Amino acid sequence: MSVPVLEIRNLHVDFKTRHGVLHALNGISFSIARGEVLGVVGESGAGKSLTGSAIIGLLEPPGHIAGGEIYLNGARIDGLDFESMRHIRGKKIGTIFQDPLTSLDPLFRVGEQLIETIRTHLPLDEKQARARAISLLADVGIPAPEKRIDAYPHEFSGGMRQRVVIALALAAEPDLVIADEPTTALDVSVQAQIIEVLKKLCRERGTAVMLITHDMGVIAETADRVAVMYAGRVAEIGPVRSVVQHPQHPYAQGLMGSIPPLDQHPSQLQQIEGSMPRLSAIPKGCAFHPRCPLVIDACHQTQPELRASGESFAACIRAGEAA
Amino acid sequence: MLAFILRRLMQSVLVLVVVVLLAFTMFRFVGDPVNQIVSLDTPAEQVAEVRKSLGLDDPVPVQIMRYLYHVVQFDFGISYQFRQPVVDLLAERAPATLELALMSSLISLLVGIPMGVYTALRRDGFFARLFQSISLIGVSLPTFLIGILLIYLFAVTLGWLPSFGRGQVVTVYGRWTTGFLTVSGLKALILPSITLGLYQMTLIMRLVRSEMLEVLRADHIKFARARGLTTHSIHFRHALKSTLVPVITIAGLQLGSIIAFAVITETVFQWPGMGALFLKAVQNVDIPIMAAYLMIISALFVSINMIVDLLYAFVDPRLRTTIKN
Amino acid sequence: MAQEKTSGQANTVQESLWSRFRNHDLTYQFLRSPITVVAAVICLVLILSAICAPWLATMNPFDPKQVLLMDANIPPVWIEGGDPRFVFGTDDQGRDLYSAILYGLRVSLAIGAGGVALAAAIGITLGLMAGYFGGRTDAIIMRIADVQLTFPAILIALLVNGIVQALAKGSSRETWAFGVLILSIGLSFWVQYARTIRGSTMIEKNKDYIHAAKLVGQPTVLIMLRHLLPNVIGPTLVILTINMGLAIITEATLSFLGVGLPPTQPSLGTLISIGNKYLFSGDWWIVTFPGVTLAIFVLSINLIGDWLRDALNPRLQ
Fold first, then answer.
1. What is the pLDDT along chain B (325 residues), one digit of tens a residue?
2. Chain C: nearest CA to A83, how far in angstroms?
3. How far is B72 from B293, CA to CA, in rounded Å?
4. What is the 3-state secondary structure (H, E, C) of chain C?
5. Does A60 touch chain C (CB under 8 A)?
6. Is A18's Cβ below 8 Å from some Cβ in C?
7. May I ask the CATH architecture of the domain B86-273?
8. pLDDT, tens digit (0-9, with 9 covering 90-100), for C251-299
9. Which pTM does this prediction carry?
10. Contact C28 A18 (CB under 8 A)
């Protein structure tokens, strides 16, 4: 297997607060191959977006990487100085944020923002950059791009703005796109279109995608593999089909059970009792054990490592038992 | 766009009408216009005659209309203390106040904005903290105390700069005199304009700082960082522009209030401006001057507000579109 | 298992009142900011000495019988020509500056507090009315507020002063100066309170407890005062603190400009105004000591206000 675009090994992110150090990410490991779409799911607060911020080196203080390694195309990028990291952001790693309404600078024309991004990373002159910006806008499906390029963000609808954001993320042909809940803030009717555009463009360019979402439907549609996160750890990771259909980790099972299937009408949807622990009160051993239907004594003691189970890897002593 | 300007214009006119009514009430009921004409030993029947000839026995609406008619022709009546038309007194002193206000505004903007940006970007730096502390002292020190301090330091102790007056002035056009053209005029301007500008400067600095800190946390700045734009561009192209949009409004209002705050500075430095005249009017219950000053200041504020609104529309494209529609 | 979790939470909630106070974020942030602690101590000392002025002062500067003109313009004790009776020297009337500052502080504080209280009372009342009744009441009150907001407070205070002076023609300044200063400050500073209260009232009035109170048939005034007010008054605390500093400055400025308190009942501003006249003849102490007291007092108040605003702003945490 060739070198993966992104590889994360045992990543830890801590927050220093006055109540002590909070471990927000607790030993995350995964990799994304060239052209692959990795879905990252989990409840809010599980550490999905934090992982994204850590990769691009934009953790907000007091958050900081406390351990582990991040490799981009085989080269280590965590702990790089700000200026080297800046050349990676936008050029090697494109980012798409949740809310297109606030992601764009309202005071600059869409074209100005595109051209600035392009010229920051590519050796093009103003005219070439503008031509590239227009073709990018056309690629993401904005009609009459040569006219719309001079419009301000507020003159676009939410879906159109997210297309602009995608164009900005792809402006310098990055190897990896981190899409952090790219459709959550959009109308349901527009969500599918946006995902479609993202998928198509990344497939054409061979761009790897880390798709952060809590929408299992989007994951099932789009992702090649999926990582299920819980309380700052990866609970299960594996091919999307196997994780959705045969989840190994009890949490993943609960998560999949909570999705209404289309073909039948279950009398009741499954739900997971309780809620995810706060960062300040993550229980010892397996973080999921207070909510787990399969809990045994050993779960209180040791934090389980990811191990092969079925077609996936799951961090559970009893992985696969109840499927 | 035209409709927007017209609507703002209507609102401004409304405010001015209210102010004129207020001024009329002061002029007519708080003060007594007869005072402008008679002296203490004028016989009673003569006073009554004057009262009648001034139309003070007419119904109030008629009087209001007459007052308005006079006001739009800049006829504000006669000052009780000086026995001169108020408009002449004000016109004579307006250049002094306006030149002082102009210099102070320039100081407060040219120093306040860069300092605010600096303290926001170097939030935890030594100088940023120093500026921030100094600014709090600036807000806490009353203007007159700063004036006294400067006079004591630079006029009394060091003897570098004059402690009062405008220095030598040159008549430029009609009644317009300027201190900009002589060395002594410029030297005389230094201390008063610093005194007057300092408070506004600290306010603008603190405003720019907090606004900029807010903007630096905004999503579009995060996205700009994630796109790998240079720090310089993020700070001075994107963040600064977003910061200045709301700052314009408040800075505009602050500059308007500089003219009003000039009352204090002009008193400390015995600056022959409108503010000092107004203060003398308050002390001596010279109602016509008070009423006229109120109206002139209001007109100034209203115009500044209008300009600020238009400027706002010019800077913020979102507003420009709403106005267009 | 869910039960286990809730009981664990309950344990952390059961704390003594004292430890709750000690662990409260506000207390924590207060103690973490040494400048604020110093400012609070200074404020407390100055307020206490203003209240206890009659016992701390060596003379009553308001009492003409105790003041001797032959003691005028004596420098502070540590300077040649100083008099051990007058630590900080005397002013042009022969008043002991130390005592005059204590009494002046008292006057400044009383007017500042009175003015701010009046402003808050006007602002909160009008804000509650505007927010609760809405419609035309709201429109009128807020238009007035808008217009007034464009005028600096000092100008309004001056105008109020001038008008009262014209109406009170003949009567001596001493009898009304105090009240007029409070009125001027009250009328100049109410807008901020009205705006804040109106905003939160408009949100609160649509909540269930207000609907419930209405359904039970409670009188409107009672609903506004007993139910609405306690829930909307919180944010005015910061404004109150910051306004206190402004009000004291405004009083001092008016007195300095000669439209505030007369020299017979001097506030800090009046003392500075007197001192300013003697600055050129080298009698620097008359202006310096009242000026420094005023500056330190206002600075301390502003430091507390600044800290309070940041500490209560969740976005800055």
1. 677 778 778 877 888 888 888 888 877 777 676 766 666 677 777 777 777 777 777 777 888 888 888 888 888 877 877 878 888 888 888 888 888 988 998 898 899 999 999 998 888 788 888 888 888 888 888 888 888 888 888 887 788 888 777 777 777 777 777 777 777 788 888 889 998 888 888 888 888 988 898 888 888 999 999 998 988 999 998 999 888 887 877 777 777 778 878 888 998 888 888 888 988 888 887 888 888 888 888 888 888 878 877 777 777 777 666 554 4
2. 27
3. 14
4. CHHHHHHHHHHHHCCCHHHHHHHCHHHHHHHHCHHHHHHHHHHHHHHHHHHCHHHHCCCCCCCHHHCCHHHCCCCCCCCCCCECCECCCECCCCCEHHHHHHHHHHHHHHHHHHHHHHHHHHHHHHHHHHHHHCHHHHHHHHHHHHHHHCCCHHHHHHHHHHHHHHHCCCCCHHHHHHHHHHHHHHHHHHHHHHHHHHHHHHHHCCCHHHHHHHHCCCCHHHHHHHHHHHHHCCCHHHHHHHHHHHHHHHHHHHHHCCCCCCCCCCCHHHHHHHHHHCCCCCCCHHHHHHHHHHHHHHHHHHHHHHHHHHHHCHHHC
5. no
6. yes
7. Orthogonal Bundle (1.10)
8. 888 888 888 787 777 888 888 888 887 777 777 777 888 888 888 899 8
9. 0.80
10. yes
Residues 27-66 of C with CB under 8 A from A: 28
**A103 has a chain B CB within 8 A of its CB:** yes
| B119 CA: distance to closest CA in chain A (Å) | 18
The domain spans of chain A are: 235-261+270-323
Chain C residues touching B137 at Cβ < 8 A: 295, 299
The domains of chain C, with CATH numbers, are 46-53+95-316 (1.10.3720.10)
ipTM of the complex as predicted: 0.86
Q: Which of A121-135, A285-299, B36-50, C133-147 has the lowest mean pLDDT?
A: B36-50
CB of A108 within 8 Å of a chain B CB? The answer is yes
Between chains, do C159 and B283 touch, taking CB under 8 Å as contact? no
Out of B31, B149, B301, closest to residue C166 by CB: B31
Q: Which of B30, B148, B213, B287 to mutate to test the interface with C (most CBs of C within 10 A)?
A: B148
CB contact under 8 A, A86 and B222: no
Chain B residues 239-258 with CB within 8 Å of chain A: 241-242, 245
Segment A167-187, tens digit of pLDDT: 999 998 899 999 988 888 788
The residue-averaged pLDDT of C196-205 equals 86
**Minimal-distance CA residue of chain A relative to C6:** A274
Q: Is A168 on the interface with B (CB under 8 A)?
A: yes
